[in-house]
């Protein structure tokens, strides 16, 4: 069964690129959101297996959103991402309940695998 992933990022171009990479990795995009409020609502209603969450969102902190998504009853795996390679440390991401933090420039290799298995090395 394909991995279902929620994309939360205010950059529509990144969401489209991530969706292509996910489909190439045999995952499906369960939904998309451009801000924290919509992202949390989508995570609650769509119940994805995983989520990719941008650290910087227009209406709040992506790190707080990631923590909220990771605590949902279905326990989706959450990967934090940012165009700023130093936005979050992996240790901080793990403390928040995410599987790690990846700079957007490093996501091309194995985006679906990092959410499915957690075998990819976070930054």
From TrEMBL:
Residues carrying 4-aspartylphosphate: 54
Transmembrane segments: none
Domain Response regulatory: 4-119
Stored PROSITE patterns: RESPONSE_REGULATORY
InterPro entries per UniProt: Bact_response_regulator, CheY-like_superfamily, Sig_transdc_resp-reg_receiver
The entry's keywords: Phosphoprotein
The protein's name: Response regulator
Organism: Conexibacter stalactiti
């Amino acid at each position: 069964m394909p991995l279902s992933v929620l994309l939360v990022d205010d950059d529509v171009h990144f969401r489209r690129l991530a969706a292509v990479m996910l489909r190439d990795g045999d995952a499906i995009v369960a939904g998309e959101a451009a801000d924290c409020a919509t992202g949390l609502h989508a995570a609650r209603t769509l119940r994805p297996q995983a989520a990719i969450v941008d650290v910087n969102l227009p209406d709040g902190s992506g790190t707080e959103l990631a923590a909220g998504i990771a605590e949902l009853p279905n326990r989706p795996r959450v990967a934090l991402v940012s165009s700023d390679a130093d936005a979050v440390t992996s240790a901080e991401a793990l403390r928040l309940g995410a599987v790690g933090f990846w700079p957007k420039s490093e996501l091309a290799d194995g985006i679906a695998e990092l959410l499915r298995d957690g075998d990819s090395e976070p930054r």
